[in-house]
UniProtKB/TrEMBL annotation:
<dbReference type="InterPro" id="IPR021497">
    <property type="entry name" value="GTA_holin_3TM"/>
</dbReference>
<feature type="compositionally biased region" description="Polar residues">
    <location>
        <begin position="138"/>
        <end position="150"/>
    </location>
</feature>
<feature type="region of interest" description="Disordered">
    <location>
        <begin position="135"/>
        <end position="165"/>
    </location>
</feature>
<feature type="transmembrane region" description="Helical">
    <location>
        <begin position="76"/>
        <end position="96"/>
    </location>
</feature>
<feature type="transmembrane region" description="Helical">
    <location>
        <begin position="108"/>
        <end position="123"/>
    </location>
</feature>
<keyword id="KW-0812">Transmembrane</keyword>
<dbReference type="Pfam" id="PF11351">
    <property type="entry name" value="GTA_holin_3TM"/>
</dbReference>
<keyword id="KW-0472">Membrane</keyword>
<protein>
    <submittedName>
        <fullName>Holin family protein</fullName>
    </submittedName>
</protein>
<keyword id="KW-1133">Transmembrane helix</keyword>
Length: 165
């Protein structure tokens, strides 16, 4: 095994000393891996609790009304824009009068309207982006056990094969 193996004797003695040093080091500096695993477990527990809360939604008439109102802005904006074109073709004089009225709206109010519309649609897009199926959330669904063998690491596989001899 090398100089340490010759000084200490068997590979099991080297492993025992390594585990002891690791245990002592974790007293002074907590394991970052363990902290991430515990954080992931806490996150999953919170998500499971939130999911259980909304698993069986009992929608009242008011809830259905609000859900319906939340679905109205996009179609109203689309059909309203088409309606403006139709209105301009049917009555150009009245349309021109309305546009002169819109020209009198101060610029900061247009910025405010743009911000409201952008945040509304941006929030919707963000919601659907985060909740689409198959999206990685950044946390594993099952925390991995860092003490188990990792077969995807060739260096560890070679090292374990050398210890077994």
């Amino acid at each position: 095994m090398g100089v340490i193996g010759q000084i200490l004797g068997s590979p099991s003695a080297v492993s025992a000393i390594g585990d002891t040093v690791k245990g002592v080091a974790e007293v002074f500096t907590p394991s970052a891996t363990k902290r991430m695993e515990l954080s992931a477990k806490a996150q999953m527990a919170a998500l499971d609790e939130f999911g259980a809360e909304f698993a069986n939604p009992s929608l009242s008439g008011f809830d259905r009304l609000i859900n319906g109102l939340n679905r109205l802005p996009r179609p109203l904006l689309a059909f309203g824009t088409i309606g403006l074109f139709i209105y301009a073709m049917i009555d150009p004089q009245a349309f021109a009068g309305r546009m002169v009225g819109l020209n009198a709206v101060p610029e900061p109010l247009w910025w405010l309207l743009g911000a409201v519309v952008a945040f509304y649609f941006g929030a919707r897009e963000t919601f659907y982006f985060r909740n689409r199926p198959g999206t990685a959330t950044g946390f594993p669904s099952q925390p991995t056990d860092s003490t188990g063998p990792q077969d995807d690491n060739p260096a560890l596989t070679d090292w374990r094969a050398g210890q077994a001899q």
